[in-house]
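Collaboration report, partner site 2.

Our partner group contributed sequences for two proteins of shared interest, and the home lab folded both. The records are reproduced in the order in which they were received, starting with the first partner submission.
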Amino acid sequence: MNFTPLARLFFTRISRRTDCWATDEPVIQTGQLISLLRRGADTEIGKRYGFREMAECDDPYGEFRKRVPMVDYEDIRADVMRMIEGEEDVLWRGRCYNFAQSSGTSGGRSKYIPVTKENLRRCHYKGSADCVAHYLRHNPKSRIFSGKGFILGGSFASELKPKDKKVRVGDLSATLIENINPLANLFRVPSKRVALIPDWSRKLPELVDASVKENVTNISGVPSWFLTVIKEVMKKRGADKISDVWPDLEVFFHGGISFEPYREEYHRLTDPAKMHFLETYNASEGFFAVQNDPADHSMLLIVDNDVFYEFIPVDDLESEPVPLWEVEEGKVYEMVITSSNGLWRYRLGDTVRIASVNPVKITIAGRTKCYINAFGEELMEENAEKAIASVCASTGGSVKNYTAAPVFAEGNRHGRHQWLIEWDIKPEDTEKFADLLDKALREENSDYDAKRTGDIFLDRLELRSVPEGTFDSWLRSVGNHKLGGQRKIPRLSNDRRIADAILGMLGE
């Protein structure tokens, strides 16, 4: 049966609420802050800074910005560990039983982000509903609920072993699957048991068996991991395209990493007459944005999702942040959030470019700690993603994973960038690929182009192909042993720690 017409009635109401955001964002966001302050007033942090008084004053945001300092994860790590051990009313009211383990993109020790019941309902699940609502709004002929959604997630495997068995620490996706409305299970695969298997050597064949004979109409997950699953499903059926296995597949809700390096491969494997791709910004810390227009790759910032946003200009990260209603179109900012998971003026480390205002739409620019500026080139992650995607499209190559780092001047050679690439489809001529990538980076970034001009300051990039499985092995070596979730490879590093570690594993 096709339940899409019935579902459309429900989801239409969800998408229409965003129509007022072009004029009402300041009022909505101020209301979000006041609500958060009131609900957090009796917590330790709320009593420390006087949240109740802030919520009732004439200028809540002014007082909030003046009294409450910005923090990063290390500033709150001890408080989060107390929450994991069972303490109540620390950063958020009551007891929190779910924590999303995240490595971020800069390596090092894991972070454990509280995922409260309110945060699940008002932020993460609300954002998921927004995805479907906006998709249905732009696709009147959709039959998305005539089959099942294939949701790919991680597990609760964790380096932490909480004393209380009710406390669950693992991938955000595992928490979302574990707590999903039972009604949604009628429209999704695989089963919860299969979805939460931690060992991917066991999980992958079970994912294939659970989906290969289903009528899958939509898929959701991280592009790199889903590509592996899709190819195994095709192999099982002896198919050349996944659309031959799932002829009614019509949309991929993707997030976690940039889609650009994978776009061409997904276009090749799906039916272009039916297939749509919608990007989401669903981090461990919250569901922040969704692509609401298929023709526009920027994402609509969700402003009524129990999150209050602030933005720090990346060209002056020591400056005071500005609220959502003061951002400028075209500028890149680091995001700072306050939300119902107990994160108060928390620096995400993610950077976004403001694509438009009224309403605010964004694109992911990268990370504050994921860039290369060793030679004044200021190469951002978004530059790298666009460049490598365009070269893959022109050469027929397909990149599975990559990282890049500076090589500093030595002997008669100038400095350069070194790219370590693991291929899905290796191009015939990798040196030609390197030439084209260098050219594409120059076109994407004027500072890189200036440093490359005449080979005076910066030599052409160096490309090193690495064997299959290299990046998985590196993730395991630094403690990120779980595959399939949002475990991210740092795309750009301003030093050689990651690149040298990977080359060291390869005996180089």
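Second partner submission, folded after the first:
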Amino acid sequence: MSGIEIAAGFLLIVASLVIILIVLIQESKEQGLTSAIGGGANDSFYGKNSGRTRDAKLSKFTKVAAIIFFVVTLVVNVLAAINK
């Protein structure tokens, strides 16, 4: 294994962990009994808007991490095919 493949493998692990953590941090969009039990009734202006911006940022970070994961996976596979 070359140094590039090791670095790419490390990037894959980091990107996958980032995706997992960001998805776990995001709030659920489901409404109903679980939202009522968990305190989903936040009617203040600040609470509503800060949640949207936070969720929007987390969603954007998830997309960026997924793109990085996809690109690094393609690069690793291309390098492996070239080195065969």
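Feedback sent to the partner group on the second submission included the following. The mean pLDDT is 78. DSSP finds three helices and no strands in the chain.
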